[in-house]
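Q: what does this look like with 9MR bound?
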Amino acid sequence: MARSRGRHRTLTSVAGSLALLVGTVLVGAGAPAQAQPPPTLRELAAAQGLHLGAAVAGPPTLADPTYREVLTREFSMGTSENDMKWGPIHPAPDTYAFANADAQAALLADNAMAMRGHNLAWHMQNPDWLTSGTWTRDEAIGLLEDHIDAVAGRYAGRIVEWDVVNEAVGLGDDPWPNPWSASIGYPDYLDVAFHRARLADPSAQLFYNDFGIELANPRADAVYDLVRGMVGRGVPIDGVGFQAHLSVDSCPTPTSCTDGLLTEMARYEALGLQVSITELDVAIPLPADADELARQADVYRQVVLACLWAPNCDTVVLWGVSDAHSWIPGFRPGWGAALLLDEQYQPKPAYDAVAALLADPPALPAPTTTVPASPTTVAPAAQVTPAFTG
Ligand code: 9MR
């Protein structure tokens, strides 16, 4: 069952609007007026009913007071970047290591921030004991279900959205090999994981999460087919995470990404599913120049606008707090500067673009009546190569 965006958006919109209104009235009535700090992204997003999140680092970064201050000031949601994955949280068959994820969950709760869980089944960051073992189908189902009970059960009631399965679809026709497709079978293991996650945390919205599915391409279609099949089998899935690891060149025109995202989001809405932007970043070849920073700002604007306009999107999560906390330079040598704040936590043009959009978003254009094009004039669908390929 998909979450009603309207409920979340209406409540938070009213609260956010009141907060801004009260601030305005107080400034207007007071004498002499004191300079008000500009609203934070978190405040601006709340006024639009939008969860704006960031991937949250583990120690030692998590203990840095400046990091904590910026994270909790600018964002209303967090995702554990690494610490809820199998390897970090389940390092030995009978050992769970919850300390880092507990600390992240506590920081978010203490600051009235929502939390996304990431993830319960993936092909990467698995512990050696899992990947080096050979498991019968029943043994593997038992392992997966016990893990979900332990991890999703521990944080039950505190996670708004769980990425139950991450990146199940391969780059070609085959499923992405992982311990679960090998032992349980594909797509059966997804069904097992989602059913168990629903039992372990009935209040969490359950998501399938993947990269390169934001804009039309064959792999986006393969993921859509997988998810549609799950819905058809009655698997308890509530949404799809569009990771959105983009590049400065991802949006060739000022509307191409908004339009493309809305198209992809609409077909999930037709299945009754939510879409969240779960790992947004926009990589630039280093060093980034002013033109690239301006084009990066427009990519961010287009993605956030799509979520504001789509009836089934209310969450945008960035994959890091600042350029000092980004996976990009380590995985794509020569690329970086991918987030809204620079390495000294200073706002970049992309920050200003997102703030301006959230402060005064354009209205969704009224649908125009179109005459169906004749088959000979239909343009080929845009083929967009995923920016991140594993
Ligand atoms: O940002 C994460 C990085 O710190 C890890 O080393 C890496 C390991 O694969 O995973 C990164 O996060 C990934 C996320 O879990 C799933 N989507 C792709 C992300 C970037 O690789």
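The longest helix spans residues 5-29. The chain has one domain: 40-384.
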